[in-house]
Every structure is written in C-alpha cells, then in structure tokens.
Amino acid sequence: SQTSFRERGRSGQPLNGTFAAIPHPVAVEVIARAGLDFLCIDWEHSQISRGEIENLVRAAEAGGAVAMVRVPGNNAEAIAAVLDSGAEGVLVPRVSSAEEAEAAVRATRYPPDGERGAGPGRASRYGYDIADYVATANAKILLCVQVETVRAVENIEAIAAVEGVDLVFIGPGDLAVSMGAFGPGGTERLEAAIETVIAACRSAGKAVGLFRPSAADVPRWRDAGVSLFVVASDTMLLGASAASMAKAISPT
Ligand code: 3PY
Fold it and tell me: Are the CB atoms for 211 and 171 separated by under 8 Å?
C-alpha cells in the first residue's frame, strides 16, 4: 500500500504545494494538474465558504493532487468539516502554545488519541467504509500547526514536543507582522526567528514547512532543513503570469 500523506510529511520527505484560494473547482483542478504534491485549499485567507470545501477537495483529487485544507482558525468544528470532506491534511493557523497545539490534535484524531467525532461523510465514503476509515484515519491524516507569532516562537520547544503534531509550518508574513519586522528592513530578524524555529523542530524530530511567496529561495530553505513548501497561491500565480505576458507584449 502507498505511504500515507501523514507519513510522507512526518518523515520529512520533500513535499511541494501551493495555496488554492479561488473558490471554484476549475481553478483547483487546473493547479492540481501542475505536478505539485499537494494543494492547500485556503479557507483562512479567501472567500471560500464551508459548503464549497468538499467540491474543491474533489477537484484536487480529480487533478491528481493530495488535498490539504487550511482552516480559518484553531476550531474543532472547522477541522471536523474539512476532514469529513476527505482532505488528507489540515493546516491550523495561529498556534502559539502547547495547549493550542494539543487542542488541534484533539480535533484531528479519533479517540483514544483525540476527540474527533465520527460521521458518514465523504471521507468514509458516506459511511460505506466508516469502520475502516475510523480505524485508519489517525495514521493517515497530516496535522500541520502554523507558527506565526512571537508567542509561538517563544513556545516553540513545547509546541514541537506535542504528540500528534506531525509538522510545524512557519507563516513568515504573520510572523513578521507579529515581530514588527514586516518589509525589507525586517528580513534579518525574521530569518533569525525562522532559523530558531527550524532548529527547535529538528532537535524535537519534527518536520518543518514554510510559505514562500515565490520559488526563488526554496533551495536556500530546503538546505536549512525545511521539507514542505507552500509556494505562492493560485491568485498570485495567475497575477504573475498575466503581468509577465502583458509586459512581454507591451510595445515599449
Ligand atoms: C504567513 O506567511 O503568515 C502565512 O500565513 C502564509 O501562509
């Protein structure tokens, strides 16, 4: 049988994806065919609504990519909804303490590892395979907690030690805002904080993920120990491609 998304993420295999923020299955399916390992459907920073998530997960699978979803907050109902839709991974934003990481674990795992409720949703093939799904989901679903505040960096050793957290994902945009280091002037301080998080995760044996706005410095961060990358988003890629075409055909 195939190695689960959880095992691939936990063990630090290279995994590349992008955010999907356009609330339409066509956009998701197009991006899913691009050759990335996964898509992270972004319910946090988009106008995607709960009722749209399941069709976006379907579209990712139709295009041959694993679907992960970033929930709007560290909220058990949101986590249950995305997992019931069939997403193989969940990215939980704004996790700043071990207690918050433990809450994300409880929402993601069935008992005895957590408190997720069992329902006959798409993930369990509408109930046809519910016993098998409940027995195996804890081992298959990748839980990534997002570290993006000063408080999270202060608590990183405790967060990285939480059993059931598979991967620590760094959000550099919000982390920079939280540190008062947003923009070019803050790069050095921000990068030092990112390195601190990577070092703590590596000594705890936790895999690390990172958002990059573009592919340019992915090799630098891969060498630093990051294994999972979310690079840009469908809207950013669409905009960059359109701008580059406009420039290429401009007469001046
Ligand atoms: C951040 O950079 O803060 C992000 O959340 C990117 O996803």
Answer: yes
